[in-house]
Amino acid sequence: xxxxxxxxxxxxxxxxxxxxxxxxxxxxxxxxxxxxxxxxxxxxxxxxxxxxxxxxxxxxxxxxxxxxxxxxxxxxxxxxxxxxxxxxxxxxxxxxxxxxxxxxxxxxxxxxxxxxxxxxxxxxxxxxxxxxxxxxxxxxxxxxxxxxxxxxxxxxxxxxxxxxxxxxxxxxxxxxxxxxxxxxxx
Length: 186
Hints:
Layout: H1 2-40, H2 45-59, H3 67-77, H4 82-91, H5 93-110, H6 120-129, H7 131-184
């Protein structure tokens, strides 16, 4: 019996490692390589840091379905790197889904409103029997969540950009050093 449990545990660990390797490969291909390419083409580490920070912040906002357009608009207004902001925005999408109920709950707590019935049956019942009241309530919850998100991001975006800048500077130095070495070897 113990051998069977050990086998199951080992199989689970192997599957977990396999998933982690797959995720790391996807991150390497879809996030790291494009960012290194942007650095190689002359994007500054500071602008990339701000672009990534804004894109990630937009990517976790509680207004589902708004992130791409909002990230594009903010990148244009603040003259950020659109590609970097979209990379961060799309990379943050799983977090948006995880954080959505958290933003709604925090909004209810901070603004002292009734909580959103996050159970599917309760929500469907409210939509069927009281559609207008449910729409108003959803907008209230959404508005409160957006207010909290905006305040949090006013603090988090500069901190995230500040933290990313030295990392991107090092990466930029390595990218440019590698490019110089490859040019001198020709």
